[in-house]
From TrEMBL:
Keyword annotations: Disulfide bond, Signal
Signal peptide: 1-18
Organism expressing this protein natively: Triplophysa rosa
GO molecular function: serine-type endopeptidase activity
Identification of the protein by name: Granzyme
Keyword match Signal: yes
């Protein structure tokens, strides 16, 4: 459950009831307490944030497939602030593996040394269906408002799982219940899903 929601938070918080796609944690709040999501990473190109992701092992991270750009990517781990240079670890991406619908696994060119500020995310063992109305939390770096500036601090926001029927009415053929999840929310902080 958590990996799906974190993936949602890292990759899909930009989904709204419009046809456009915009990345960010809209209406999010600064992460508190600091470093409370040690599995989060910033995927970067030439030192600039491209997408949020998370560590799934000491040598692999996961992000969205649409984050792959021309040029070399790096992963920054161990920080919740994109300009704090002394706290983070920067590791080059050796190779990447794209998966449908919009997933990408990044293989790092060296193993990350895990510690209290750098950890892997627990991966669920089965495919559990998350109930409609479940309150969850998403996190990532991005825009606090639509078309606003990128936030330097890791942001988080509360979201609630919507029904497939509501999403289907809003998105039409663009919505695929087997590959997507719809959420809504105003934003604040919530460390885990509550079922």
């Amino acid at each position: 459950i958590i990996i799906s929601l974190l993936l949602l938070g890292s990759l899909l918080p930009h989904l709204s009831f419009t046809a456009s796609v915009k990345v960010g944690i809209v209406n999010g709040d600064k992460l508190w307490p600091s470093h409370s999501r040690p599995y989060m990473v910033s995927v970067q190109k030439k030192g600039k944030h491209v997408c949020s992701g998370f560590l799934i092992s000491d040598q692999f991270a996961m992000t969205a497939a649409h984050c792959k750009t021309k040029g070399k990517l790096t992963v920054v781990a161990g920080t919740d602030n994109l300009i704090r240079r002394k706290e983070h670890v920067r590791i080059r991406v050796m190779s990447y593996y794209k998966h449908k619908p919009d997933l990408m696994v990044l293989e790092l060119n060296e193993r990350v040394k895990l510690n209290k500020k750098i950890k892997t995310i627990p991966i669920p063992t089965g495919q559990e269906k998350i109930k409609v109305g479940t309150m969850c939390s998403v996190a990532g770096w991005g825009e606090l408002t639509h078309y606003g500036p990128i936030r330097l601090n890791l942001q988080e926001a509360n979201v609630m799982i919507m029904s497939d029927e509501v999403c289907q009415r809003q998105w039409g053929k663009k919505y695929n219940a087997s590959q997507m999840m719809c959420v809504y929310g105003e934003g604040s902080s919530c460390p885990v899903c509550k079922q």
